[in-house]
Amino acid sequence: MNDDAMNLRARHKQATREAISHAALRLAIDQGPHGLALVRVQDIASAAGVSPRTYNNYFSSREEAICSFQADQSRRAGQALAARPADEPLDRAIIAAMLELYTDPEPDRAGLRMIMSTPELEGEALKAFTMAEGPLAEAIAARAGMDPERDLFPAVTAAAVAGAIRVAGRRWLASGSAASFADVVRDALACVVPPAPAPRSRS
Predict the structure, then answer these.
(1) Burial bucket for residue 176 (CB in 10 Å: 0-12, 13-18, 19+)
(2) 113 near 56, Cβ under 8 Å?
(3) By the 8 A CB rule, do 40 and 2 touch?
(4) Backbone phi and psi for residue 34, each to the nearest 5 degrees, phi listed first
(5) Contact present, 54 and 16 (Cβ < 8 Å)
(6) Which Gene3D superfamilies match (predicted)?
């Protein structure tokens, strides 16, 4: 299989994954506050235009399907930071990378509220955000000239970033203000993202 065919297949799989996820979330929202328990696999598959078998090939639960967008974002966190200009200060690079990754486009309020107000979904979303920590820590270590296995700074900063984004989501939903999600995320990240310390001596 040539590269073009492989890329086309990957895009098709991602589009199918996103269609299933979107259908699952919209059905849960439509059912009301306890909508997750009322959504069946058959309903999700029908709304997404796929068979139940195809659904099961992509996801093992409704929670995983609904939170797949957050999981996909988190898997790209390290790449997003690595793509920033090499001469950009670390704190600015992290904030810019996370803003682009998590706020473009701005989350759907109803969808985010459903995820954060349903314990099963909130737990799945927490797992999704945790996926960002390892790749992000490696990217932070690379930019800061550190060893991710020895230095605490990359892992601690990555965990703090993931936590700040979760807190920003809750604050954005609860505030009722006209502030954009990007503004809230930027303020939250500014609380936890310090400039990189000098690399430790390897002696």
Answers:
(1) exposed
(2) no
(3) no
(4) -110, 35
(5) yes
(6) Homeodomain-like, Tetracycline Repressor, domain 2
